[in-house]
Amino acid sequence: MHHEDQRPDSFLERIRGPELIEVSSRQSNIRSFLGIREHPGGVNSHWPFARFNVNYSNNTNEDKKEEKKEVKEEKKEEKKEEKKEEKKDDKKDDKKKEEKKKEIFVIDPSSNIYYNWLTIIAAPVFYNWCMLVCRACFDELQVDHVKLWLFLDYISDVIYVLDMFVRFRTGFLEQGLLVQDEKKLRDHYTKTLQFKLDVLSLLPTDLAYLKLGLNYPELRFNRLLRISRLFEFFDRTETRTNYPNMFRIGNLVLYILIIIHWNACIYFAISKLIGFGTDSWVYPNVSIPEYGRLSRKYIYSLYWSTLTLTTIGETPPPVKDEEYLFVVIDFLVGVLIFATIVGNVGSMISNMNASRAEFQAKVDSIKQYMHFRKVTKDLEARVIKWFDYLWTNKKTVDEKEVLKNLPDKLKAEIAINVHLDTLKKVRIFQDCEAGLLIELVLKLKPTVFSPGDYICKKGDIGREMYIIKEGKLAVVADDGITQFVVLSDGSYFGEISILNIKGSKSGNRRTANIRSIGYSDLFCLSKDDLMEALTEYPEAKKALEEKGRQILMKDNLIDEEAAKAGADPKDLEEKIERLETALDTLQTRFARLLAEYTSSQQKVKQRLASVETRVKKYGSGTLSTGETEAEKPEEEKKQ
């Protein structure tokens, strides 16, 4: 609010109105400009208007002063607002700094640190699940080693507390990113059921030791609620190990042993509750020296539990009702355990032998085919040896079949990791684009040749190139015995023939005989795959052809006149053949579309004819009702 708005109106302003005020103000301004002053009691004082003008001119000066004050105050207010905004910006910066500070150390659940911590926390959980029930049922075990148990118990409690801190710092993924905000991590953990179980597992129930004594380890049974950590450790280990089937079998056996252990302890506790030696079913009287030892008590109970849960029997029959009830429950649990053992072990063994069974089925089918076609014994022996080599060297895996479930990016990364160094050894591919190399790497096919096999013969049409991964190949004469050169790991051949360079004297024909000396592993890149990849990289295609042309010129294997001439007629023939095949496929598709169109057109004509007949009979008013009545029986027929 300005001061002019707050200043009350004068009497003359209220009576004379705004027009008179404006005139008087103008006159006062003129007088002040001409330097005319009024004296009290002078001539001018007799004129009320003059008197009013003088007074009002004084008021304008006051207004100017007030306006200056207002401008100053506005500037002060602007400065204050600027300061406030600066303070807000500073506060925002401080908040951002605080948020940055809040980004604390977070443990990634997929990291090795988290797995190592799972290994640590699994130890006290396993200790509690094995020893608490045993100490609660066998008094001598608790009494004779109290100090040791107290030490181990409170070490496990310390690890439990640390585990809660680790839980608070364990990150989780949100929109694909690891959350590192302390508040979010805390809220995420506290809202889960596991947080409640972790809190219950840390309740200081063993404070009752102060009243009941140290011989009541069952007060610590709430520590068993942390078992999820043990299961998580087993799951992570199963995904990390190289022998998952063996680990699953060992894990299953461990679960069964823990169940048998708990059942043995419960059996001894029931025997103690009923009374040792009171009947034939319970544990014998401990006053007998043979049955008074701790080792005999536990082993006898474990033996009874094993016989019962494995449904073998041969245990003394129960006598009392509670004994019958316990044995019935044990038999039911034993049936479930036996079914679990048979099912899991059977599936694990079948999984372990799945690859062998699949490979053996292939070998058997090949043997049957060769026997049916009466293949010679020498060739049959070579085929069987080739299969044996594949199995013994673990080369029976079909890479495409194994990697088919992975996304294309991961497939490319694995292929690059495995094959890229091998592909870079080829001269013509050394300076190619990375994208083209990735395309070619994905198209490499591993092949295995047995001793004496010809990879290519002189004069054959070159449809693929080869890179030697492992083994030795010999460039031999036409007789197949004389060796000119021996090719070893990293060598390659056939790269010029698949480029089909113009003017090449050999064309796309092989110029040498290459034979495998022993078993050799090669990577094969076909001409079709190379050309398919080069369609997206025309510049790389030109560069490869130029490199191939230079190589041929060095070896004097290129006809320059033919190279400068027009397109090769063979290339034109190949292009025409491709166009013909493409036209054939288009014709078949067009024929299908035409057939579908004609059938749909006939149906439309039939419907129009039926509509016309109905219109003629019933008129346009009953058309809709007639259509609905006619459509109903058609739908019923379809159904």
Structure summary, number of beta strands: 10
Which percent range fits the helix content?
55-70%
Average pLDDT: 80
| Helical run tally | 24
Question: What amount of the residues lies in strands?
Answer: 5-15%
- Please outline the major beta sheet: 4 strands, antiparallel
First CA to last CA: what distance? 82 Å
Q: If strands are numbered along the chain, what order do they take across the biggest sheet?
A: 3-10-5-8
What class, by secondary structure content? alpha+beta
Inertia-based shape: extended
Low-confidence blocks of residues: 1-59
Cα gyration radius (Å): 48 Å
Description:
By secondary structure, the chain is of the alpha+beta class. It contains 24 helices and ten strands. It has helices at residues 3-6, 11-34, 48-102, 112-137, 139-144, 146-168, 182-190, 193-201, 209-212, 227-240, 244-274, 289-292, 294-309, 321-352, 354-372, 377-392, 399-403, 408-424, 434-443, 527-534, 538-554, 560-564, 569-618, 623-638, and strands spanning 173-174, 177-178, 445-449, 454-456, 464-470, 473-476, 483-487, 492-493, 513-516, 520-526. The chain is extended, with a radius of gyration of 48 Å. The relative contact order is 0.04. Mean pLDDT is 80; it is low at 1-59.
